[in-house]
Amino acid sequence: MPHRPLLPGSRRYRLPVLALACAAILGLPQGCGSDTMPAAPAAAPPAVVVVAAKQAAVEEQVQFIGRVVAVDRVDLQARVQGFLKERKFSEGQDVKVGELLFVIEPEQYQAVVTQREADLTKAVADEQNARAQLARGMELVKQKNIAQSEVDKLQAAQSIAKAGIAQAQAALDAAKLDLNYTRIIAPVAGRIGLSKYSVGTLVGPASGTLATIVSSNPIDVKFPVTQRELLQARRDIEAGGGDPSKVVVLARLSDDSLYEHQGKLNFIDVTTDRGTDSVTLRAVFPNPKGILVDGQYVGVLVQDDTPTLAILVPQSALQLDQQGTFVLIVAADQKAQLRRIQTGPSVGADVVVRAGLSAGELVITEGLQKVRPGILVTAAPAQSATQAPAGLVAP
Asked: Residue 33: what pLDDT?
């Protein structure tokens, strides 16, 4: 049978051509059915930013919200009725103990005092007369010129006269008190507020407060602390070797600055608020410039007076799950490891680590979403901070 040439459209012609095309395109030594494939390139380890856990002297702080309360606060009130005659102060000025502030018209009360003095003089004269009558009666009864019953009457009259003296003296003392109450003086030193009544106004016991004096130096700050926070603060201070009775109290003002003077804890309430399970603590602050004002809200920072060494890590490194707080570190083999830690109070942008971490260990702060424990990572150090966090003690 004669040989027939292969036609381009025939099956025998198409198969070798396809095989050659596959080999040319894929660069394979064999046809498309070969089992040999190129190896995929290895993925690069994820890049992370690390910060070395550092050990530093720290004044551990616990923060609360407090209210400034004047040590002494007195509402001045009229104890007698009358027209306000004088006001001896300028509103807002500092006053001293015993300084005259208001005068209520004294004339009517002076008149009463004069009358009571006259009543006392008359009572004394009556008693002298009764005593003389009794003395004569005693002589007459010895001579039996009068009956004993008359002498008894004379003795009773003298007793009544003595009582009259006491009664007149008491009335005079009360009148003098009323006259004294027309002069309202400062019972404490401090700053006096607005006067609620003008000169010429009729005032009296029902008029309420005429003005208020609040002491300003020193001044108190009261703040509530839950029983749990109080116990934890005591444990933290004692764990650091401090004395809970010698803590330092700082005040943070509304502009987030710290008040220039330190306070001292001087009172812990003897009862607990049943609604909030909190105890009221009180600290006293020097206030020579009057920056702290009665009724003002301030932040309260309580810290031990002796700095302690502590491990610090950035707060951005902390992670939380159902088992608690942990961080990821880069070990010596460049692999990420999970570390369970116990944390303490915050110190600026850092947090105190009480257990689970050593100084110098590299803690991952950025790139955490790309890392899981056990994988290789490429670690780069974070840029150094320009300022030390609040709470650190300068070397």
From this structure: 47
